[in-house]
Fold this protein.
Amino acid sequence: MTIRYGRSVWISVCIIFVMLFTLSGCLGDSQTGGVDPRLGEAPVAYVLRSAPLDEDGVMLVRNEREPDSFYAGGELVIREAASPSAAERRISQRIFAEPHDVKHLSPSYDGRRLLFSLRAPEIPGADDDEQPRWNIWEYDADTDEVRRIISSDLIAEEAQDLMPRYLPDGRILFVSDRQRQSRARLLDEGKPQFSPQEESRRVNGLALHVMNSDGSDIRQISFNPSHDLFPVVMNDGRLLLVRWDNNGAVNEFNLYAMRPDGGAVDILYGADSHAQEDPAPLYTNPALLEDGRLLVMKRPTESLTWSAQPLVIDFRDFINIDEPLVPGAALQAEQLLGDLPFTGDDEIAVSGRFAALTPLADGSGRLLAAWAPCRLRHPVTEELLACTDENINITDIVEAEPAYGLWIFDQVSNRQLPVVAPRDGVMVTEAVVLAARTRPPALADGVPGIDRDLVLAERGAGILNIRSVYDFAGEFDPLVELPPGVTTLAQFADPALVTAEQRSVRFLRIAKAVLLPDRDVVMVNGADIGRLAAFGMRELVGYVPVAPDGSVRVEVPANVALDVQLVDASGRRIGSQHGAWLSVRPGEEVYCGGCHEAGSPAPHGRVDAQPASINPGAPVTGSPFPNTRPQLFADAGDSMAEVLTRVEPDRLQPSVDMVFVDVWTDPVVRVPDDSMQLLYSDLQTPVPADADCIDDWTPLCRTVIDYRDHIQPLWELPRQVNIEAVTTDVTCTSCHSRRDDADMLQVPPGQLELTAEIAPESASQLVSYRELLFTDNTLELVDGALVDQLVPVLDDNGDPVFVTDEEGNLVLDQDDNPIPLQEPVQIGAPMIAGASRFGRFFPLFLTGGSHQGWLDPAELRLLAEWLDIGAQNYNDPFAVPQ
């Protein structure tokens, strides 16, 4: 539906009320007189804006993934009371008389100050990067003055600053694309500084930041590659935020919690709640209700009407829409507010539309609502009409653009009181009450040397501590067939009962998201990233052996987005993708209970929802685990990884290479397992890791695999093997080519071409890259030319389908016979991006395969890790040709 703005018509309050009374299923009875006495004298602040229209009078789309969008004509208004007759003050007009924009209102705990985001008027003719930025401002009711929090023009205009909130200790929390810590990390990694884009590469990513009340000491506290939005301080002092989870196949907005210093990141609600909605909706503008539940505005990604569905989420008892934290939870996870259905842009909203909703928090359960009654516009006369059954049935009738007014919504009495009457061409899009409320406790920042590790903090690192990778929501799953007589984790961890080779999981692989710049810095398109552009670019941090009980304790770089994978002894991933980015703060130790099976109904990832660990740890202090080396004496409750890294601290660091040494088996019990290693130094092609990092890992070490530099050389490396006592050239490109040894045209063996020519489908990719990862047409040699192999198209009954013209008539050949419709025979890709365990490539090189031994273990490891992290074309944006 297209919403158009025709004549400028002011709608009187009486017309609005007539319309309201004619609506069935509306909010209930209205009353017009005075101020609701239960509200008291608390002022109301709101954003009043002219309807955002384009040059043709069509409503501009609101895109929730672009929170820094500017719509000229929004201003901050403060009304002395919730009454249509109360005096109002145009606060932001004191700053700019020209059309500007305001949003993200947030009152202080005493109700005397108000934070808001404001962007100055647009500069005519200026480029986007020369336009003003969003700044954070504060209104002080005691002095009736406004000030910009960051006083310096230079610092204020460095970035987009949005969504401010007061912290209980007086500091200010906000979201911004400043990302100073991320930019500093880029320099440490030897890259130029830039503002990272979110993972869909449309706009700069927004992260949580804190600063002092005077705008000093700005610090980034979250490091999700995509947006972190709408922070709220919860009653326990932690932060609630809306996080854009956009890792690999996951693309949704979920609710997370963290401490105000960015530590203890914990999912609260939402993962797996969006399976029935594509694209996944957003939970926006969260606000805590007095009963502890969360009020959110559930929005589509894009909207012409700027409307949302008010939704109450019980995140106390649910982790997602169908997973209670405890059995028998009484309420639903999500409830529609007032049982009002949400109407999309393509339907007429008979019950009206909500743009914003916030609790009054005065003990009454009432809400302050930006709400628009249903209105129709006659298709011929453009007359405004009420949404009666008769009018709705008018041919070509359309819904008029919404006129959001401001209302008090009383859920108990089911009635609404007008505060700001709806007017045509004007919208109220946000509102808050300036009243005192309880201040949550102020949580102190973690301090290295006190509650965080000082040495790790100075190294720019933290610790990831996994209790057991075999713990799947409280159930033991060894991810392999158990040896006879072994049924429990304790038995599986006993070196006398199970050898290393009997455990399929041997290592934890740690990867890192690569931050991408905008196109003004370097041009990177989807084909440059590769087969799975949604995976983005990734770097490898390193590997660490998994202890026999499945535990892992490893040092990882701080203040970056990390991903983890379980891998076998050959470097191939076992199990599914993790699905969410992890991060640690400098010196912080992050604990994880175990893993989560896709589709499992058990909660996962939320600390207060985890079932008891299946790994109880050491039973007593001072003794080793059963049948392990006596030097590795345990403290009661420690996992094996905790014991190892305490006794031998060097084991805390990962390695660029895959190196296993049996440190556990007591040689008195049996011979320890053989050591194994897959080393980059064994490659005869370019190594993707720095030599210094191979010798001595640091938190800045990265393995960067680019297809052209590190994978294509594998196909071109000269190879010879002994086949039936004959030395034979098995160089990949010598065989898998369109030309044979005599330079004659041929069908590439296996329908696979591994040459380094530029692919005709994409100038960014090589022929071999596309042949390995994309579905292709089968070729055949016909009259000296390579052509697609064609077969007749058959219908559902197995009968041939013939060529027809645009009108459906048969097209005949020169003999007046119908021409059979043909289609090419397709062949699937031999490799599957993101999953080295699938596809037909690897079995060829394993025992019994036709190419057994033609690639060595180090080469297969390189291929496996490249595939598992996404099979990218490039993993370094600055290596992309410009």
